[in-house]
Amino acid sequence: MTPRRSVLLSSTIAAAALLAGPLAAQITGFGGSSMTGWTPNQSGAAGLPSVSGSGNASDVLTLTTANNGQSTSYWFNTPQNITNFTERFTYQQTSNTPDNGADGIAVVWQNAGLTSLGNGGGGLGYAGITSAAAVGMNIYGGNSGSGTQYNATATSGGGVATTPTPGGVDIASGHAINVTLTYRQTDGALTETMTDATTNATFTRVWRGISIQGQVGGATAIVGFTGATGGVNAGQTVTNFQFTPNSAPATPAPTFAPLTATGYNQNMITSQASGTANITATIDGGTAKTGDTFYETGVNPSSSVSGVPHAGTTIGSGNDSQHAFAFQPNGAGQNDAVMLDAANTSGTLTLTTPAKYSALSFLVTSGNGAGTVNLTIHYAGGGTQSASINAPDWFNSGPIAVDANGRADTALDDFNNVDNGQPRMFQQDVNLTNVANNVVSVDFAWGGVGGNREAIFGISGTAVPEPSTIGLLSAATAAWLVRRRRPK
User: Fold this and answer.
1) Quick check: helix, strand or coil at residue 471?
2) Secondary structure class of 204 (helix, strand, coil)
3) Is residue 52 in some structural domain?
4) Cα(28)–Cα(87) distance, rounded to whole angstroms?
5) How far apart, in Å, are the Cα atoms of 452 and each of 207, 271, 447?
6) Bridge-partner residues for 196, per DSSP?
7) Residue 54 resides in a domain
8) Distance between CA 75 and CA 227 in Å, rounded?
9) What is the pTM of this model?
10) With CB atoms 3.0 to 4.6 Å apart as the test, which of 218, 289, 383, 433 could cross-link to 379 if both were Cys?
11) For 44-185, where are the E strands, in sequence order?
């Protein structure tokens, strides 16, 4: 007779296998020097892309060399399931002075076909490919430094949007950079981890509120890489490649999760749905609506990847995996920011559902120079806490939560700083001193000088855990055992 434990174990394994479905084969390497199973494409890059190796993980894919005007792509011939995957590789700039090369590569998932090849230069060989999504890795230091970013389909002109890499990881350094990308369609999240193999500097961040399946138009896609040089060049290689379908671990949960609140007092982001019709203030000019302000992705006809995410989208911080924020509705009669300046010195956000928090984080920026925002946090029962946060200028500051990669005036006839890492929104945290009472609201007071203008676009919080049902049950069980052990 089979032991009952073995039967249960076998049944558990069988059930797990049934739920998981058949395991897909892992792609390892680049097909060796014969490029077996892969399709190369190039423009202005004779002999590229090329592969050295024998068809295993040690294969080295050369996408660009130290020559100007190259654009290449390299695609695995068989479409892969992209609803849940892990992709690993090592990237390295192999020539040109570190931090002076260009332009970069893109890690791409697409359904445009095996001959697909996008624009060179800042297009990274990716911009122009339809039905596609990518993580762009731009090493050109002329656009506010090197960086990476998830990009939806980039069908129009311009470059591929990037956010500078945090944590001391410089992808343009010439060091080998180990990259792991994991994606879960059910979470709407792509987790990016990069580690410098020389310095061991590392970071993890999560691009949230995305759908690779939606961008490529299906549950399967062609996987591969693109690369490009422009007026400046660099040798760029990829090795240690593995793509494993149906293997993504759980997406890291954000420590700071978005909170719903009322009291946003201005509409400051030009929306794709209604243009500037609902704008009530700009970052540059306040309620005079002069100068420039943020716009949503899709507003700029010359750059489909620039702009901030659409209203209602939950996004991960461009700095780490711990912060998530939600953009506010910005339709007619709706406001997406708390604006503070010399003419509008105060505002209040009231939580829709008061709760206990150990820390709050604010999605904030400032125009016309950095500023300070003074806070009064109100707790249930009447207690308060005073604090202040910095509001960095929307250019050249950090820690970066959102990189808009473009701004525009209210006439939409002056799009500027497009695809160059500016302007930005930032995360600013405040630790709370009262974790026993619910947070009810937060008052904001302008602490700037002169023409400084601050805007808060969202609030997130770290909840104080409530006692779990398991914990309560365990306590009750312990008390019952004590009673049972008493002598009669």
Assistant:
1) helix
2) strand
3) yes
4) 10
5) 30, 24, 9
6) 177
7) yes
8) 12
9) 0.89
10) 383
11) 50-52, 60-64, 71-76, 80-81, 84-93, 104-110, 132-138, 147-151, 163-164, 177-184
Token readout for 459 is 């609030």
Per-residue pLDDT of the chain (488 residues; tens, 9 = 90+): 333 333 333 333 333 333 333 344 799 999 999 999 999 999 999 999 999 999 999 999 999 999 999 999 999 999 999 999 999 999 999 998 888 999 999 999 999 999 999 999 999 999 999 999 999 999 997 656 689 999 988 877 678 989 999 989 999 999 999 999 999 999 999 999 999 999 999 999 999 999 999 999 999 999 999 999 999 999 999 999 999 999 999 999 999 999 999 999 999 999 999 999 999 999 999 999 999 999 999 999 999 889 999 999 999 999 999 999 999 999 999 999 999 999 999 999 999 999 999 999 999 999 999 999 999 999 999 999 999 999 999 999 899 999 999 999 999 999 999 988 899 999 999 999 999 999 999 999 999 888 899 999 999 999 998 654 333 333 433 343 333 334 43
Q: Tell whether 297 is covered by a domain.
A: no
How large is the C-alpha radius of gyration of the chain? 25
Is 341 within 8 Å of 446 (Cβ atoms)? yes
Q: Are strands 292-295 and 269-270 parallel, antiparallel or unpaired?
A: parallel
- Is residue 272 included in any domain, yes or no? no
Q: Which domain holds residue 405?
A: 257-263+317-325+337-463
Residues 73 and 159 in one domain: yes
479: left (phi over 0), alpha (psi -120 to 50) or beta: alpha
